[in-house]
Amino acid sequence: ALTALIDSLNRAYDVEEGRPFWxxxxxxxxxxxxxxxxxxxxxxxxxxGPQLGRWVADLVGLGxxxxxxxxxxxxxxxxxxxxxxxxxxxxxxxxVEQEWKWITPGSVFAIIGWLLTxxxxxxxxxxxxxxxxxxxxxxxxxxxxxxxxxxxxFMLIGGEINAEIEHASQDGKD
Length: 174
Fold this sequence. Notes:
The chain is mainly alpha-helical. The protein has helices at residues 2-12, 21-60, 64-92, 105-127, 131-135, 138-168. The two termini are 28 Å apart.
């Protein structure tokens, strides 16, 4: 999947892949491992954040104030992890020379679009979708693949936004 994303980002930047086959595959594998780590940490913070906050507060003896602050602070941490993950993909994915940027308009669009789509999709599935009755157990796979498709779509649109801004900028490359 990340090899296809790299190819799509190259198309967005209007460049041919000039890196050797093995290097593209190595980058794709490293991105897969790195993104998996970022996503697992973000998912753990999202799912078990309150319990982790209480556990750390009890372990260190910080009390309920720390747990309350932690519940608020974990959201920027999750957002920061997502920003870093997408910035890494947008930096190492396409075969272009570019400066490292933590936050780009494309990554902001991708994260906001991904979050809104995830929330909207979860709302639809929980309230209106009857996948289990219609498709049986394969319904969960259909839902997961549709969500992954929409997530990839926002990643590609964000990459296209970055490429167009790079092409239009005075400091950008042709």
